[in-house]
Amino acid sequence: MTARPAGLRAGPPSLAELRRLAIATLDGNWEHGHTVPSRTLYPHQWSWDSAFIAVGLAHVRPDRAWQELRTLFAAQWADGRVPHIVFNPALRVGSYFPGPEFWDCVRADGAPTAATSGLIQPPVHAPAAWLVHRRAPSEASVRALRWLYPRLVAQQRYLTGRRDVGGAGLACIVHPWESGLDNSPAWDAPMAGLPADAAVMRAYRRHDTAHADAAHRPTDLDYARYLAIVASYRQRRYSDDGLAGRHPFLVECPLVNAALGAAEHALARIAALIGADPGPHRDRAVRITEALVDRLYDPVTGTFHPRDLRSGRLIPARTVLGLMPLILPDLPTRQVEAVLTEARSPRFGLSPRMNRPLPSHDRTAPDFEPLRYWRGPSWMNTNWLLWRGLLTHHRPALAAGLRESMLELVARSGCHEYFHPDTGAGLGSPAFSWTASLLLDALAEG
Fold first, then answer.
1. 427-431: long-range contacts (C-beta < 8 A, 24 or more apart)?
2. Does residue 4 surpass a pLDDT of 90?
3. CA dist., res. 88 & res. 435, Å (int)
4. Which of 26, 53, 78, 442 has the most CB atoms in a 10 Å sphere around its CB?
5. In which band, very low, low, confident or very high, does the pLDDT at 420 lie, cut at 50, 70 and 90?
6. d(Cα 266, Cα 260) in Å, to the nearest integer?
7. From CA 236, how far away is CA 398, in angstroms rounded?
8. Residue 26, phi-psi category: left (phi > 0), alpha (psi -120 to 50), beta (remainder)
9. Is 252 tagged catalytic?
10. How confident is the model over 62-96, as pLDDT tens digits?
11. Is residue 104 left, alpha or beta, with left meaning phi > 0 and alpha meaning psi from -120 to 50?
């Protein structure tokens, strides 16, 4: 039986109680300019976490929402990449692994003065910035958008330029961590041949398994491969020159590229607001959506798959990544219907009256794991992205069912990092910021 979330009285919690719980979680995780994902496992600032967190903060602390994004983009690299971690210099060396001493970005060309990682995460920041402005429009929000706009454009330019390894107009990720879905079964095939020798595994001490059950986290073998991929990138000082010829992991991800297209739509709106030209953003949005459909949609399975650029093949795993292109407002009708068919299938179980949470991986697959990180559990952020996509494509009944499922997860288990895909029990870190933030956004749309 799941313990009652702290701060909620006995009996079904009211929407007002859920809102208070979410606000208290975000306030508790505020860290002098940004919000940590949690006080246990994640003591620094994470890139796409901050975007999701800003969306919720806009409803209750709009000044903090803008500060969240400003703090993140202040650590942007000269080439436009937004690092997936910005490290808190106040924490002692070794307090988190892999920390700044492992990444060693100070020797990389164009790295900021702040200590960061050298990887990226899905570019959900422009849509988040636009939503923050919509939730709390003001002169201050327009000023914030003016400051962010060139930085968001630089982020897009980096991803569509330096990272277009396949040459077809899509961004390539160079590490599973860049997808946001770190341990997804989608990465098993491209990682299968990578080295993971015992020396690498002995050279570090994992911190995640000190805070969470090891059975819920990536295996030591996978973690050693993650580090080997970073080491390959770090050896060349995080340069993207010649990636196709030398880097061991190169994948076009449906979520990253759907976010890339959605960002161009958001940038068009921002540009129009601040007096810039929205036309180029609209044109790029069209090209990205066309490339996404051409490169990553499989008409046989009727869903989107990552493409392994090493093999040239689509990765067969059917994960929640395949549903994420629904966030694109210009996704063609054929693909919209196909994604909805996939989402409603027994693999994911989307319906107007959901009896189980939406999983992160095909629940009918033999490698479905309901407890292990991204290999089955339900996550608020992917649920929220799909919910926004359903609203965009005018599917109110399905959107209402998914929203109700999201609220039920927190009502049952609190603001956990992720949830059991059958029971809804809370898993991972408690008092998790993006769960609280996106709960606030879902509550506001009721």
1. 427/216, 427/371, 427/377, 428/41, 428/212, 428/216, 428/373, 428/377, 429/37, 429/38, 429/40, 429/41, 429/42, 429/211, 429/212, 430/38, 430/40, 431/25, 431/28, 431/29, 431/38, 431/39
2. no
3. 22
4. 53
5. very high
6. 10
7. 47
8. alpha
9. no
10. 999 999 999 999 999 999 999 999 999 999 887 88
11. left
Average pLDDT value for the chain? 93
The yes-or-no answer on residue 182 being catalytic is: yes
Residue 135: closest CA among 36, 217, 53, 27: 53
The Cα 256–Cα 266 span in angstroms is: 15
Q: Alpha-carbon distance 334 to 438, whole Å?
A: 29
Choosing from 79, 178, 182, 308, which is the catalytic residue? Answer: 182
Please say if the pLDDT value at position 217 is more than 80.
no
Is 7 a member of any domain? no
The reported pTM is 0.95
Task: State the total domains in the chain.
Answer: 1
Question: Does some domain include residue 320?
Answer: yes
In a domain, 119, yes or no: no
Average pLDDT, stretch 295-317? Answer: 97
The CATH number of the domain holding residue 304 is: 1.50.10.10
- For 252, the domain range is 15-43+139-144+164-444
- Rounded-to-integer distance, Cα 160 and Cα 85, Å: 21
Q: Is residue 92 part of a domain?
A: no
pLDDT of residue 1: 32
C-alpha 133/C-alpha 65 separation (Å) is 10
- Over residues 235-276, the pLDDT tens digits come to 999 999 999 989 999 999 999 999 999 999 999 999 999 999
CB 160 within 8 A of CB 284: yes
Which of 252, 264, 417, 441 is an active site residue? 417
